[in-house]
Specification:
The protein is α/β, with parallel strands linked by helices and 197 residues long. It is built from six helices and six strands. The chain has one domain: Rossmann fold, CATH 3.40.50.1820. Helix content is 35%, strand content 17%. It has a six-stranded mixed beta sheet, with helices on both faces. It comes from Verticillium longisporum.
Length: 197
């Protein structure tokens, strides 16, 4: 079946910024494409362990069609840093994105969230403060609690291949960062959260 083959990681459209911004004690990365005054952007929120480029093909199509798109790397993911003492939660990541976009002068936006990005988006929608600037949201591959996920997927060969790829990509994006510590924080979060009711 097709789902047993891991496709190549797509590329983000160029140019790709290397700039990060200090938000809530970490350096967060984002990239705006087709920025337009008074336009409402589509914010793309990636899955766990991955980063913004995993939405690269979708972003490229949206950009080619003229949409204003913002790619983000959540706390610890991709080009965004984390602190050794951080306890990752979807609530914290929702606040990070909210504060990052507010700092960037983005007052309203739509969100597309996949997997951990879906759960981060749902956490944002539950909180009146982080929900306020979200006009619309499309989430897929998320869950209301850890029991709602496929408990055996992490035992598959394709998942092992994905994690190995993420380790290599992480080393290129954040040389010297501790991927094992990062992945452990993500794994702990995914094993215990969310607890949406």
């Amino acid at each position: 079946p097709a789902w047993t083959t891991l496709p190549p990681t797509p590329e983000l459209p160029a140019p790709i910024s290397t700039a990060t911004t200090l938000i809530n004690g970490v350096q967060l990365w984002m990239q705006k494409y087709n920025e337009k005054a008074n336009a409402i952007p589509i914010v793309m929120d990636h899955g766990g362990l991955g980063y913004s480029a995993y939405f690269g093909s979708v972003i490229s199509r949206l950009v080619a069609d003229g949409y204003y798109v913002i790619a983000v790397d959540r706390r610890g993911h991709g080009r965004s840093t984390f602190n050794a003492g951080d306890v990752f939660t979807f609530d914290q990541m929702a606040v990070d994105i909210h504060d990052q976009l507010a700092h960037a002068g983005v007052p309203q936006y739509d969100v597309v969230g996949w997997s951990d990005g879906a759960m981060t988006t749902l956490a944002a929608l539950i909180n009146p403060v982080t929900a306020a600037p979200i006009r619309k949201a499309f989430v897929f591959g998320g869950a209301a609690n850890p029991e709602g996920t496929n408990a055996t997927f992490s035992d598959t060969a394709i998942f092992a291949e994905f994690v190995a790829r993420c380790r290599t990509e992480y080393a290129a994006l954040q040389p010297g960062a501790d991927f094992t510590a990062f992945a452990t924080k993500v794994g702990t979060m995914e094993a215990t959260l969310p607890q949406f009711t």
